[in-house]
Amino acid sequence: MNLPMSFVIAQAAPAAGAAPAANPLMTFLPLILLFVVFYFLMIRPQMKRQKEHRNMVSALSKGDEVVTNGGIAGRVDEVGESFITVEIAPNVKIKLQKGAVQQVLPKGTLKSS
Hints:
Layout: H1 5-17, H2 24-58, E1 65-68, E2 73-79, E3 83-89, E4 92-97, E5 101-105, H3 109-112
Antiparallel strand pairs: 1-2, 1-5, 2-3, 3-4
InterPro entries: Preprotein_translocase_YajC
Keywords: Cell membrane, Membrane, Protein transport, Translocation, Transmembrane, Transmembrane helix, Transport
Transmembrane segments: 28-44
């Protein structure tokens, strides 16, 4: 079955011209969905951790037992505006930024170790 080339071109041309215009919303939908997934899986949990850390640091008081980001454990001796003094051994005190506190330990943890 030999079809003339003009017949094949004539049949293909209307199909190419009849393509409907793409909806702009459908074009950006995958990008929007990706952003929503990133927000709920990465951004939101990170913001929650930052808020919990800010609350923990603002609630520090004298006598709290803490662990710093560097792994140093000690008892808070003095609390200032942006710095704290931590006693890590008898008569050995270091001054740290409040943000360097990673965790507040339960009372009595340092005596048991």
